[in-house]
Design goal:
The chain is α/β, with parallel strands linked by helices and 470 residues long. It contains 20 helices and 10 strands. Helix content is 53%, strand content 10%.
């Protein structure tokens, strides 16, 4: 159910019209994501003088946690907005509609907080409030281009979104930046809500999880935070790697995951690497993530990149020559987001200048992008290429194994990472199982020595350089 800010029956036309204007201004200034999550559930309780102070506007929120957040971040703004529309307003009360802390009123004269009447918290009968998640309308299953590199992840996502008892949970999606994880997560949310319109779906990044949890602890209202997440029928957490090393956040995340899984509800997690490779994430969380279905999305090959561009042209109704699409697909292979961004740029520049799109125009428009795409190599690419060449698993390169059959390929991969990426030595070490920067230095020097004395090593490195720099 989408809450549009229910109007109190006692609010007159003047206050109601002002509240409509204030909401519209907040939506525009705060942005859709912040507005939907924090400000949209707010409702006008009273504005006609029925309160103890006849010049007070009373706004209600469904939890003490949300109330405290809005007070901290938007009390002054709300006062200013109402004052501009209704000069008679002298204070704005931001209250909790259910039992909770005494509401606080911000007065116009002093700008200070003062306790309000303890009876107002129950002015509106409490009840469940289902807030629609902020899902990108573009990210649906029918707009996801499928091939062998992402078919398992796509089918798993479709399966989890279907009604009925979930066949598995959690679903853990992992891939590099811009390869479709977020698209699939939002598509799951869309499909699940289509099948169950009244369901509670929460979609948030791991960074937002951490921020909200810290805010709840500071407000001494972790109960509302826990209740909001654990009551979800579908919980979607993006970019899990961002809670690495955050012990208190991981503790709460672990218990949230346990509650969701124990209740038989749906949980979807994404990260930039598989669970076992998440440095700084507790082993018990890794174990929970591995208990469901782990699906990776591989880097798009040339055929998929070309298909994505064709689909994008149809979506934006743009006529782009085949030669230009071939150029973009061949030269931009880091991630899908950059690929689509390059196409958007070409089309937009052509519309703004009135020029015809051809190869010369595309090269002139995307010169910096095309040059940058040629040089950009990721450590994940290097690890996948080296492990495949030596018939190992990528996990072997970040494992603790020290046998030569693993150690030498690991050293080669570290050497390539130092030569082809802009990552620092400590960053490279962390990507190889949390190793020290001195280990990376030793690996680089060792491979440099072996290239002068071992023809097989030198040949292998030349092959890797040729493939990665192509």
């Amino acid at each position: 159910m989408c809450v549009e800010g229910l109007q109190g029956t006692s609010a007159p036309g003047e206050a109601r019209k002002a509240w409509t204007r204030v909401r519209a201004n907040l939506r525009e200034s705060a942005g859709i994501r912040l507005f939907e999550q924090w400000l949209k559930p707010m409702e006008l309780i009273d504005g006609d003088g029925n309160s103890d102070d006849g010049d007070t506007i009373r706004l209600g929120l469904p939890s003490a946690f949300m109330t405290n957040w809005v007070r901290s971040h938007y009390a002054d703004r709300l006062m200013m907005e109402f004052k501009a529309l209704l000069p008679r307003v002298r204070s704005v009360s931001i209250e909790t509609r259910i039992a909770g802390p005494t509401p606080v009123v911000l007065t116009a004269e002093s700008g200070t907080a003062a306790p309000a009447s303890p009876t107002v918290a129950s002015a509106v009968p409490p009840g469940p409030v289902a807030i629609r998640p902020v899902l990108d309308a573009r990210f649906t299953f029918d707009r996801f281009v499928v091939d062998t590199s992402n078919r398992v992840a796509f089918n798993a996502a479709r399966t989890l979104s279907e009604p009925g008892p979930p066949r598995f949970s959690p679903l853990f999606l992992h891939a590099g930046t811009g390869q479709g994880k977020t698209h699939l997560m939002h598509a799951i949310g869309h499909a699940f809500l289509e099948a169950r319109p009244g369901a509670t779906v929460i979609c948030m990044s791991a960074e937002r999880f951490m921020y909200d949890f810290v805010a709840a602890m500071r407000a001494r209202d972790t109960f509302s935070f826990k209740q909001r997440l654990r009551n979800a029928d579908l919980l979607l957490i993006d970019d899990l790697q961002f809670i690495a090393g955050k012990d208190a956040t991981q503790e709460e995340f672990f218990h949230t995951v346990n509650e969701i899984m124990s209740a038989g509800k749906r949980l979807v997690i994404s990260a930039d690497r598989c669970p076992q490779a998440l440095d700084g994430v507790e082993a018990r969380i890794v174990s929970r993530m591995s208990a469901g279905l782990v699906a990776d999305i591989k880097a798009p090959d040339l055929a998929l990149r070309r298909a994505i561009l064709t689909r994008k042209c149809a979506d934006i109704d743009a006529a782009v020559p085949t030669a230009v699409l071939d150029l973009l697909a061949a030269r931009i292979h880091a991630n899908i987001r950059e690929l689509e961004g390059a196409l958007n740029r070409v089309v937009a520049y052509a519309q703004l200048t009135g020029d015809t799109i051809d190869l010369d125009f595309a090269v002139a428009t995307l010169g910096d992008v095309l040059r940058g795409a040629q040089r950009r190599v990721t450590i994940d690419e290097i690890q996948k290429l080296v492990s495949a060449h030596f018939e190992l698993k990528p996990l072997d390169l970040i494992s603790a194994r020290r046998s030569r059959v693993v150690a030498r390929p690991r050293q080669i991969a570290m050497y390539l990472a130092k030569r082809l990426t802009t990552r620092s030595l400590p960053e490279i070490g962390r990507k190889f199982g949390g190793r020290d920067h001195s280990t990376v230095i030793h690996a680089v020097r060792k491979i440099e020595e072996l290239r002068d004395t071992d023809r097989d090593i030198d040949t292998a490195v030349r092959v890797f350089l040729r493939e990665l720099e192509a």
